[in-house]
Every structure is written in structure tokens, then in C-alpha cells.
Write a structure and sequence with these properties.
By secondary structure, this protein is of the alpha+beta class. The chain has a four-stranded antiparallel β-sheet, with helices on one face. Strands 2-3-5-4 form a four-stranded antiparallel β-sheet, with helices on one face. Strand 2 and strand 3 form a beta hairpin. The longest helix is centred in the N-terminal third of the chain and has 17 residues. The radius of gyration is 20 Å and the shape is elongated.
């Protein structure tokens, strides 16, 4: 039996399921009656993990975002992974918005997590490794307490807990 147990805190999304959700949302935009003859589109750029949404007006853009979120939720992709950009005026009296997908734990959030974990007063150590945080400790119960705490008080994007050993 191991002396120390550990797990990694990461923030990732399933890109295959994200692609499927975007494809389903694009299909719904193509077949829905209220979107016939409009400029409502979703473009998915896999290289920089962003989505470019076009619509005729702000209300329609919000509907497009809602459709996308519904498809993401059905495919098991967390909707909190979406970061909304600035609403921009586009050509032909239309609007567009760029949404980015959050991948990895940002440096400031990682430092904040390490500080929060130390503040719990448990006998665990945490360290930042690239875009994840590793937590180690002797007692599994204490590690589970850290997981429960981070689920409640983590950053505003999805966290996963991997390599629990």
C-alpha cells in the first residue's frame, strides 16, 4: 500500500463531444423555421478553441447561444467552459460574438487554489504543475475533503479530478 496518495486538478473538455454539440447546433439553426433566411451561424475554430457566432440582432444571437448551450449540456460538455466575448457590430446590420473555450487552469487561479488548500488546515501538499494542480497527502479522507471544497469554491470554470491514487 502506498504511503502517499495524490490526485490532479485539471480543467479540460471533451473536444469530440464539443464538435458534436456544435454540429448539432448548426443543424438546428439550418432547419428551424424562425431561422430561415437569417444570418445565424456558428463557426468552430479548433486551433484556438473559439466559436464565432453571427446573427441578425442581439436577441437572435442570445437564442443561438442558448441552442449551443443546450446541445453542449446534452453531450456532457460543461457550459461553464464557455467564455463570452464582446458583442460586435458586423456588416449588413448584423452582430457577432466570439466565445472561447476554457482549457487548463490559469496561473492566478492555480495560486489561489494552492492558497485555499493550505488554508483548510489539512495535512496535504499542493503544487502547480503546468496547467494543473497536484495534491498529495497520507489520508484519502483529507484528499476527498479537498475535492469537496474545490467543487464548492473553485473557479468559475469546470474542474476535473484525475489520477486519484
Amino acid at each position: 500500500m502506498a504511503d502517499n496518495h495524490s490526485f490532479d486538478v485539471v480543467s479540460e473538455i471533451n473536444f469530440v463531444e464539443m464538435h458534436n454539440a456544435v454540429t448539432q447546433a448548426q443543424h438546428e439553426l439550418a432547419v428551424r423555421y424562425d431561422f430561415k433566411g437569417t444570418r445565424a451561424t456558428i463557426e468552430y475554430n479548433k486551433k484556438d478553441n473559439s466559436l464565432l457566432l453571427h446573427a441578425d440582432h442581439k436577441g437572435q444571437l442570445e437564442t443561438v447561444i442558448q441552442i449551443l448551450k443546450e446541445k453542449m449540456a446534452k453531450r456532457g460538455v460543461s457550459v461553464t467552459a464557455l467564455k463570452r466575448g464582446k458583442l460586435e457590430e458586423a456588416t449588413h446590420d448584423s452582430v457577432r460574438e466570439t466565445l472561447t473555450l476554457h482549457v487548463g487552469i490559469e496561473g492566478d487561479d492555480a495560486k489561489k487554489m494552492v492558497k485555499q488548500i493550505k488554508g483548510l488546515g489539512l495535512k496535504v501538499q499542493s503544487q502547480i504543475m503546468d496547467n494543473k494542480v497536484r495534491v498529495t497527502g497520507k489520508k484519502i479522507d483529507e484528499l476527498q475533503s479537498v475535492i469537496a471544497y474545490l467543487k464548492e469554491n473553485g473557479p468559475g470554470y469546470p474542474l476535473q479530478f484525475e489520477n486519484f491514487s
